[in-house]
Amino acid sequence: MRRRVWGLCQGVSTAVLYGSLALFISILHNVFLLYYVETFVSVYKIDKMSFWLGETVFLIWNSLNDPLFGWLSDRSFLSSPQSGSQITSPEVVLKRLQALSRSGPLFALSFLAFWVAWTWPGLQFLICLCLYDGFLTVVDLNHNALLADLAVSAHDRTRLNFHSSLFSAMGSLSVFLSYSFWNKENFYSFRLFCVTLATLSMLGFFVVSRLLRHRFQNKVQPCKNESQALTDKITGFVKIANNLGLENLSSALSFVCFYYCIALFDSLHSNRVFTEGTCKLLNLVITDLVDEDFVLNRRQQAASALLFGMVALVTKPGQTFAPLIGTWLLCLYTGYDIFERNSMAEAPIAAPAVPVPLRQGCFYLLVFVPISCALLQLLTWSRFTLHGRRLQNIKTLRQGAQHSHLIDVKAI
């Protein structure tokens, strides 16, 4: 029976196995994002100074660990004498999968450390955030790097990314299930729920990474060189800019529907699915940057994890600034302080002349901030040039990897 199940699992496509790894990340990370601040503020009663100090340290660690771990991950590949003519190196893929099989279960264990009070809240807040983000970074970098290492053609990468987006959206369902267990007065059922999610994630990382490693150890199949017809459609400037803008616009529009009580569940579900799906398109752009870096710098192996880490160096601080700016804006415009139980009853020092109702303040925060971010993204991506003929030439050189053709690369 065991061999039969294992044989059935081996028949699953590589794209499905790769995408399922996103599920085991998403089911934990979405719950973390929704509840970690509420847990430490309302359940563990962390003070304001410790919260801001922890978020400041986390901001620094969250920004620096991505390029650091990316460099550590790719250091052995960049110094390897192996030729870079192979589009998909089995050695690179196997090392990525080995890292996922180790760091995936540790990531799930670090997730559990949030939901049990085991030391002073300020210290636990700092340790848990840094530990969790460290393992999350290793998992994310290796998983995203596999997208660039498993395939080069736009068609194959789009297929891999589609399954990753699909499973990631499915993972957001854990948030809806969590509402049935969340009770800050009685934390026991929520802890059991988190243990169940972590166990599922650990088993998933172990089984899927083992299946993929077995596949590449026994039968390495080079990725097919597909037509570049989808390149402009998927990773072109207009498409990417619009979709990245829609990531924030969809969040705002979904919340508007929620605010006016129109299809409550549909709006929440579409908000999660749209944002999970559209933000994954950025990974396709980064894989194109990996190809460009490989060609321009004449690398022997693509520095996939390092490139994803450098991108995160710029983008990750937003995850830390979001709760800080959000709580500050709420306090500034409504007079509500999440760290003070009676902050609405007592007039704060910096209270506005005409306080905005808390509900209206939340509405403004969740609608106008995403719209502003979307407009800034559209403006920024108007400067993006790696698309069209330039991208096609980079793809051709990446697939051919002929050093004799790299002389005039920078003139593309």
Automatic annotation (TrEMBL):
Q: How does it sit in the membrane?
A: Multi-pass membrane protein
Q: Where in the cell is it found?
A: Membrane
Keywords from the named record: Membrane, Transmembrane, Transmembrane helix
Going by the entry's taxonomy, the superkingdom of the source organism is recorded as Eukaryota
State the InterPro entries in the record.
MFS_trans_sf (IPR036259), TMEM180 (IPR040035)
Question: Hey, what's the signal peptide range on this chain?
Answer: none
Q: Name one GO cellular component term.
A: membrane
Pfam family of the protein (one)? MFS_2
**TM spans (from-to):** 12-37, 49-72, 123-141, 162-182, 188-208, 306-336, 363-381
The name on file for this protein is Major facilitator superfamily domain containing 13A
